[in-house]
Amino acid sequence: MQYADSGSANRTEVYEPQKLRDRTEESRHIERGPIDLPFFLLTMLLLTIGVVMVLSASFARAYYKEDDATGYFVKQLFFAVSGVALMLVASRFPMSFYRRISRMALIVSLVMLALVVPFGVGRSTVGANRWFDLGITTFQPSELAKVAIILEFSTMICRYKNLMGTFKYGVMPFALILVVTVGLLMLEPHISASVIVIAIGAVMMFAGGTRWQYFVVGIVVVGTVGYFVVTKMGYASARITSWLDPWSDPRDTGLQIIQSLYAIGSGGLLGLGLGQSRQKYMYLPEEHNDFIFPIVCEELGFIGAMLILVLFALLVIRGYWLAVHARDRFSALVAVGITSKLAIQVVLNVAVVTNLIPCTGISLPFFSYGGTALWIQLIEMGIVLAISREIPLRKQKNEDERAK
Fold first, then answer.
1. Dihedral angle sign, alpha carbons of residues 274, 276, 282, 285
2. Angle between helix 292-324 and helix 371-389 axes, rounded to 10 deg
3. Sign of the alpha-carbon dihedral angle for 308, 202, 3, 8
């Protein structure tokens, strides 16, 4: 049944029964099954390999900066172990809980993004201000904003339902949230997070039923704005120049990508061996962070790097499988959003370090050094596992219906 953009009768017909169903669903006791074992094991395997690679990639810089070769590794190990605990805790909450907190999570993330520029710490070499100091580590509000958008967009899509094909409900509220979020990110500035947020928003809207014609208009608008950002912002245009011709400035803007390509090429088919990278000895900047994948290629070779990418592909496929079999539409949309975010970050990170696209500072999930980012990634995996716990309910419902 189709609904018009306006009219109180139509809106009541859409919203009120939905609210009643939501309250009924949340009020009854939900029996939940076990977590999805393949998704959990793939996550743990990637996390374990990632922590080992942080040790291998970081010990030279850690010894040089902190006089402790295991400094970065110990911190990453702590966040990995505690992150697994957070993942398991997150998997215990019902999806109705995440639906209730979606709006608050978005508001909190936007407030933090608004505060990070005047009150944040951790200014990078390119003048970006993206962090809050938590003492033992720093926190990027952009990481929270990504998952908050996934949760809130899923809630909004379920609320609007058949109205997603209209401009008023299927485009305007989502575009407003994206414009505000990206606007705050650009104040830092944080181009990589802006790209991911826009991509996540587009995926969620497409999965929710927004008409493809609106995406054509959106691509034109985003492309136009992106062109002006690149041409007007000095550091962005410098990255474009270094992408097109890294050797035009091999000691400054082109240094990182040149050393990255050296590392990847040096690995050959089988690699130099775990711990045997040469580029990590202060040649390749951010070798334990955004550019850890070239170290993987150098030490494990083409075969080892491809095996890791296959593990990521299997995790993404399993995430989409869980989305298809999810208990309800909200759970399916959240699984699609989180899985797509993972896939987007992996693809973009590999594309950056191989110079397929300009350098944007995108981390590799489970591998790149960073405490709170790893926490949020594992919490996201916990939410997907929470979705998998409720799949037996759908199976039981289908069996009951067949029995009737």
1. negative
2. 20
3. positive
Where do the domains of the chain lie? 33-398
Is the distance from CB of 365 to CB of 54 less than 8 angstroms?
no
pLDDT of 27 > 60? The answer is no
Cα 370 to Cα 54, 73, 194, 382, 397, distances in angstroms: 10, 10, 19, 18, 42
What global pTM score does this model have?
Answer: 0.87
The count of other CB atoms within 10 Å of the CB of residue 349 is: 23
Angle at 333 between CA 329 and CA 336, to 5 degrees: 140
Contact (Cβ atoms closer than 8 angstroms) between residue 34 and residue 92: no
* pLDDT tens-digit series, residues 32-70: 789 999 999 999 999 999 999 999 999 999 999 888 889
Burial state string for 384-399 with b = 16 or more CB within 10 A and e = fewer than 16:
bbbbbbbbeeeeeeee
Tokens 């970081």 appear where? Answer: 58
- Residues 79-119 pLDDT 10s: 999 999 999 999 999 999 999 999 999 999 999 998 887 66
**Lookup result for tokens 């399916």:** 332
Place of tokens 């390119």: 126
